[in-house]
Write a structure and sequence with these properties.
Strand order of the largest sheet: 1-2-3-4-5
Strand content: 25-35%
Distance between the termini: 41 Å
Helix content: 25-40%
Number of strands: 5
Oligomer: single chain
Largest sheet: 5 strands, antiparallel
């Protein structure tokens, strides 16, 4: 189905749009005499239709090459945990993760260089794999988990190699070798210590996010 605009003279279209959307604005002088007035008019007019500059946290996942991936990611200040600002940011991460239907996300992927990761391997993602692959790759459900200032320790040094993709390298995937088991420690959004013992596919998800 296509979206069509009823044809009528351009002058009427402009007049109609201005009347509907800009009737609350102060009128623009009919005559512009100087370059400075012209530039002022251009700035005013562009501000009405040009998108505002985006600032993090973004509602999209940034791609490799973005400057946010360059510096070393900083720890989240302990006195910020449980703050309204940090909880808003965590909710934003969860929304983006859900929108992109990924199993994990890290704070730098939405533009902030903080040590926060979120993991989840839901039943919905499970349905994307055949029972054979699900078994061979040692997949199992992982509930939504928020980890602030996470640290990882390898618990099983045997390795597995499978195809892996990343939302920050959109359109590509490749074989990646990962350890078979890891333990993650960190704080949840309430500032409580937690420890996750992961194996198989969930260990892979954790290592992928810790790479960020």
């Amino acid at each position: 189905m296509s979206f069509a605009i009823k044809r009528f003279p351009l002058s009427r279209m402009v007049a109609s749009l201005l009347h509907q959307h800009h009737s609350h604005l102060r009128p623009i002088p009919a005559t512009i005499h100087t370059n400075s007035q012209l530039n002022s008019f251009k700035s005013w007019y562009q501000s009405k239709w040009m998108p505002r500059k985006l600032e993090p946290p973004y509602t999209h996942i940034v791609q490799v090459g973005d400057p946010v991936f360059a510096p070393k990611v900083g720890s989240c200040p302990l006195d910020a945990i449980k703050s309204k600002e940090l909880n808003f940011f965590i909710d934003q991460l969860i929304r983006v993760m859900s929108d992109y239907q990924v199993a994990g996300i890290a704070a730098p992927q939405v533009g902030l260089d903080l040590q926060i990761i979120i993991l989840e391997f839901s039943d919905q993602l499970k349905r994307e794999f055949s029972p054979e692959i699900y078994k061979v790759r040692e997949m199992e459900t992982l509930p939504l988990t928020v980890l602030i200032n996470p640290e990882m320790k390898v618990t099983d040094y045997s390795k597995r190699t499978y195809d892996e993709a990343c939302a920050s390298v959109c359109g590509y995937k490749g074989e990646v070798t990962r350890y078979a088991g890891v333990t993650l420690t960190g704080l949840n959004r309430n500032g409580e210590k937690q420890e996750l013992h992961l194996k198989g596919w969930n260990a892979r998800i954790a290592q992928h996010e810790m790479d960020t």
